[in-house]
Write a structure and sequence with these properties.
The protein has two domains: about 35 residues; about 30 residues, no CATH class. It has four helices and no strands. Helix 1 packs across helix 2. By secondary structure, the chain is mainly α.
Length: about 80
């Protein structure tokens, strides 16, 4: 019997990214959530294997996220994660 998928993870997207995810899911006749899961699991596997492109993508997202966070959000993150 397959494991039940009970854990949830919210991933913020731009409106354009969300629309593209929906369009791609529709093209592959799958829900956006299941497409995102498939892509996530593949990406996690690539990261585990040390794939250079995946490592660069993670590094680029860390930089982009840092630029998006405002001073107030930085304080909230610091309080929540103790950093």
């Amino acid at each position: 019997m397959a494991d039940r998928l009970t854990a949830k993870q919210v991933v913020p997207l731009t409106e354009e990214e969300r629309a593209e995810l929906r369009d791609m899911a529709s093209a592959h006749e799958i829900t956006p959530g299941l497409l995102a899961r498939a892509l996530l699991l593949r990406g996690m596997g690539e990261l585990r294997s040390g794939d250079a492109m995946s490592l660069r993508a993670v590094a680029a997202e860390k930089i982009a996220a840092a630029k998006r966070i405002t001073a107030g959000a930085r304080a909230a993150v610091a309080q929540r994660w103790g950093k």
